[in-house]
Structure formats: structure tokens, C-alpha cells
Amino acid sequence: VNIEFIECHYIIDKNSAKEKAFELVFSKVIEAMSAWWQKDSTPEKNKHLYFDLKEIISMLATTFKHSAFSEEEEIRLVISDEIVSKKINFRAKNNVLIPFYELELEPDVFTGVKIGPVDNQKISAQSLDIYNSHRTAKLGDDKFQLVIETSEVPYRTL
Question: How far is 49 from 60, CA to CA, in rounded Å?
Fold first, then answer.
């Protein structure tokens, strides 16, 4: 299992998405490939690079978002694993199964939360305020107080 924190890239149109993708391929993928390539090895020994590079490209692809969400300045925790893994759990949301991992992370990993465009954003913010009070009391230090913000992007249902 590989875990990375990766900044999201906010895309205006298809051309800017292509430009950013090419930039990332050259800055991340080619850099990794040249570092991992074994010059004096047989092609068989370098065959593992295909899978490593495919994983890097897949992880980077998960970070593209529409530019309307740019104010969120999202950093994603991206996990790559086998498609069938005992570590993957599932939950239901709106009649869709969502895969997820249970992770234990240090409390100082999170410093804030930005609530995206959701129905009842005010209720979400109030719930997070209550959670924030409990979290700070449980951890015993105000340094664990989260900064809670709401997105200005309007919530829309069709």
C-alpha cells in the first residue's frame, strides 16, 4: 500500500488539463523513471518500472478538479493498493458503494476543514464545531483546534 499527500490541480478547460498533465508527467514521472532505471540491467529487470510509473500516473490523475473548487486548496490523501485487498472496506452513500480505508493518523495531521458545497452547509458547520470542541477536550491541547471554513461555491441539485 502506497500513501501520498498530493495537492489538487484545478482545471479550467480540456486544454489546460492536457498542459498540466504533460507538465506533471515530465516533472514527476520522467524524473522517477530516470532515478529508478537500472542502466546496466536487462530489460527484464526494468520491467517493474512499467507498474511503478502506471501507479504514479494513476495517483496524479486523481488530483484533477474543476476550477470552480479552487478556493478549497485541497490536498488529497491518495492510497494505491491492489483492487482486491482485505484492507478496503465499503460504505453506502446514496445507493452507491464507496470503498474506504480505516487509517490511524496522528491528530496533528489535520489542521483545518473546509466544508464543500453541500445541502445544509450550516448544519455541517455546526456539527463540526461540536466535534472540534470534543476533539480539543479529548486531546487536551488547544493546538489541536481545527480551523473550520465553508466553501463559497454554491450547492446545486438537479
Answer: 16
Can you list the pairs that 150-153 forms with residues at least 24 positions away whose Cβ atoms lie under 8 Å?
150/114, 150/115, 150/121, 150/125, 151/69, 151/71, 151/72, 151/114, 151/115, 151/116, 151/117, 151/121, 152/71, 153/68, 153/69, 153/71, 153/116, 153/117
Task: Read off the pTM.
Answer: 0.58
Residues 6+ apart with CB under 8 A from 146: 110, 111, 112, 113, 128, 132, 135
Sign of CA dihedral 120, 122, 125, 126: negative
Residue 46 grid cell: 526494468
pLDDT tens-digit map of 13-36: 888 888 888 888 877 777 777 766
145 contacts 107 by C-beta, under 8 angstroms: no
Bridge partner residues of 3 (DSSP): 79
The x, y and z cell numbers of residue 157, run together, are 441539485
